[in-house]
Amino acid sequence: MDPVDPDALAPAWAAHLARDRRRSAHTVRAYQATARRLMGFLARHRGEPVDRAALASVDAAELRAFLSARRNPEGGGIVNASAARELSAIRGFLAFAGAPPARVRGPRVKPGVPRPVSPAEAVALAQTVAEDAACEWIAARDWAVLLLLYGAGLRIGEALGLTGAILPLGRVLTVTGKRDKVRAVPLLPQVRAAIEAYAAQVPWGTARDAPLFRGAKGGPLDAAIVRRAVRAARAILCLSSRTTPHALRHSFATHLLGRGADLRSLQELLGHASLSSTQVYTKVDAAHLMDVYRHAHPRA
To answer: Catalytic residue at 16?
Structure first.
């Protein structure tokens, strides 16, 4: 039976997203937080607890008021892209609760163009992170993780989700991405060598059912640790604040496209569900060409 307790609605939706929709743990946490925020807002707005029946009567004016409050600095100060994601989560939650669809138009979001780093910058970033590591095996770990992002186009969550079962390595790595979509990714010799060097040094071994990449105390490596190391390295190298672990994946895609890869092949390598997600990289390449033109052409 569906939960009636208002406090159980958001957790029940989160469980549905994880179990039935196969959404990532990050998405589940974010969407559940949105559901809790909406119910808290409505409870304050109406002066009474919000249950399933109350959600069914939510109107467009209340949803606009909620989004307006979220845009306020005291409510988070979210921008258009975040407001659009928030509205998407709200629509899903209300549908789960049995409410009729609310006719609220989302904010216009201009598609962002990923900012790739150059091959030299990508390698320098990985080297700097490794050089700043506390010990030799952690340096090997960080080098291997960042090469997987730039050399194989993995998402950070995909890289950290690998287990010892991938060893011994072949020429192709099988990766499980978003919504349990499985894809095959070719491994460059340099990437294979980096993973094998790390595997030979990690103090906790590489059991088939255990995380391949470990934290300093032996637990699964946290993505926040990788992001923190990249922030420190990019400051040393004076790189843009947009130089993040995910930017390495963007760079992988952009550089392949610039060297003649077709969109369909790139879609498969990146694990995108639709071609439209991959087409953004054509804008990246065009932007790069315009930048080269402006800086190099005598009449630009």
So the answer is: no
Which of 65, 96, 127 is the C-terminal boundary of a domain? 96
CATH code where residue 287 lies: 1.10.443.10
- Can 26 be counted among the known catalytic residues? no
pLDDT (average), residues 95-112? 73
**pLDDT for position 284:** 61
Highest mean pLDDT among 7-21, 53-67, 209-223, 263-277: 209-223
Q: Which of 178, 231, 283, 288 is catalytic?
A: 178
What's the 3-state SS for the chain? CCCCCHHHHHHHHHHHHHHCCCCCHHHHHHHHHHHHHHHHHHHHHHCCCCCHHHHHCCCHHHHHHHHHHHHCHHHCCCCHHHHHHHHHHHHHHHHHCCCCCCCCCCCCCCCCCCCCCCHHHHHHHHHHHHHCCCCHHHHHHHHHHHHHHHHHCCCHHHHHCCEHHHCCCCCEEEEECHHHCEEEEECCHHHHHHHHHHHHHCCCCCCCCCECCECCCCCECCHHHHHHHHHHHHHHHCCCCCCCHHHHHHHHHHHHHHCCCCHHHHHHHHCCCCHHHHHHHHHHHHHHHHHHHHHHCCCC
- Told to judge if 155 belongs to the known catalytic residues of this protein, a careful annotator would answer yes
Same domain, 192 and 262: yes
- Point out the domain boundary residue: 61, 81, 96: 96
Whole-prediction pTM: 0.63
Span 27-79, pLDDT tens digits: 788 889 999 999 999 999 888 888 888 888 888 889 889 988 888 877 677 77
